[in-house]
Amino acid sequence: MTWDDVVDILFDGSEKEIKSLRCPDCNGKITTIYNVNNNSLKVLCKSCGYNSVLNGCESIPNCFRIR
Ligand SMILES: [Zn+2]
What we know:
Number of domains: 1
Structural class: alpha+beta
Mean pLDDT: 94
Helix content: 25-40%
Number of strands: 3
Strand order of the largest sheet: 1-2-3
Bound molecules: zinc ion
Largest sheet: 3 strands, antiparallel
Order of helices and strands: HHEEEH
Shape: globular
Distance between the termini: 23 Å
Radius of gyration: 11 Å
């Protein structure tokens, strides 16, 4: 699995798929923070320090909707 696959699941995956997601780099737990004000999704892995921000999301990601 790559980070692209992770992002696909964060947006379109089922609750089960999202909850079982793991960091492709270190197998750590992924943290996501969605900002409704500017439609950006921050993806973090606290274990290895991966940190990415997706700006201008066109739809609310499922990982946010499910919570
Ligand atoms: Zn990691």
